[in-house]
């Protein structure tokens, strides 16, 4: 099958560019991005190399976006979310929504098979992202990726993560405050068949607004949500002054006794840290510029 470069670009730019929201300066890049490797023998460049580059660009953009959007999450959770967002299934779904099937050029062996496979569509999407990157740079490529994939991230978070605030709170508390959340039932109301539970979440010495639910599990999730939102805002705020030392002190004291002494005087965070850290860490931790929060280098 003989296909020329002009054949690949002649009838596609206006339609596909309108859907992408981007106009190419070099339209041959677009034509190559939408040319599958099944046309390798047709004397025109295919999208294999562009797909390689686009995979890296998408991975970088999504990684940075998750890093900035989710400051309280560890690498494992971020990697899990990224793997879903950049999967062939997700990228193929986006490509289908943009109508890529109308524009991708494939060999005869891939036509008439009930539509293009997810692999072909995902590869084309990656190649198109690379084409935008080469045509205009990372800012335009990043804008395209986030416009098309950020809603998928938000949908995934709403469906899969926001329902498990206990895990999120535990991850955030242990990573940034070196403490494990604890939950206590504050009250139970109503008959046995219709009770309403009220639970408080505690991280270190600090208690957070209570959560209510028709089961202890539901109430704990709601309490964890309140605590997580407060602590996540503190961690992500530039002016936030999270005090992991104080939480470490309380967490350690609670671990020694099941009946904490609420009348005991509140320990000084600095003294507690001094008992656990070498002198050089103390100096770097507490000798900071005026108006700036201490930096916990042990984290």
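Q: What amino acid sequence fits the structure above?
A:
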């Amino acid at each position: 099958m003989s296909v020329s470069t002009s054949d690949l670009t002649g009838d596609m730019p206006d339609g596909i560019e309108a859907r992408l929201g981007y106009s190419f300066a070099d339209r041959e890049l677009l034509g190559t991005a939408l040319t599958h490797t099944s046309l390798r023998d047709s004397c025109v460049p295919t999208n294999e190399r562009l797909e390689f580059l686009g995979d890296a660009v998408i991975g970088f953009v999504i990684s940075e976006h998750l890093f900035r959007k989710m400051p309280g999450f560890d690498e494992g959770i971020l990697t899990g979310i990224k793997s879903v967002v950049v999967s062939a299934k997700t990228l193929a779904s986006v490509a289908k929504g943009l109508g890529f099937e109308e524009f991708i050029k494939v060999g005869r062996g891939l036509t008439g098979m009930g539509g293009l496979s997810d692999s072909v569509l995902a590869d084309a999407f990656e190649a198109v992202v690379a084409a935008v990157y080469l045509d205009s740079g990372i800012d335009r490529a990043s804008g395209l990726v986030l416009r098309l994939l950020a809603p998928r991230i938000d949908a995934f978070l709403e469906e899969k993560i926001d329902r498990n605030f206990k895990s999120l709170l535990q991850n955030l508390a242990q990573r940034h405050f070196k403490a494990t959340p604890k939950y206590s039932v504050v009250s139970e109301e109503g008959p046995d068949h219709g009770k309403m539970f009220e639970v408080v979440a505690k991280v270190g010495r600090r208690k957070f607004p209570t959560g209510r639910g028709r089961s202890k599990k539901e109430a704990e999730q709601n309490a964890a949500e309140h605590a997580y939102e407060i602590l996540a805002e503190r961690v992500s705020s530039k002016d936030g002054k999270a005090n992991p030392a104080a939480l470490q002190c309380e967490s350690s004291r609670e671990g020694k006794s099941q009946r904490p002494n609420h009348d005991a005087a509140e320990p000084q965070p600095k003294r507690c840290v001094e008992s656990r850290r070498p002198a050089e860490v103390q100096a770097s931790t507490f000798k900071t510029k005026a108006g700036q929060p201490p930096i916990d280098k042990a984290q």
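Q: And what stands out in the fold?
A: The beta strands are 182-189, 196-203, 206-207, 211-213.
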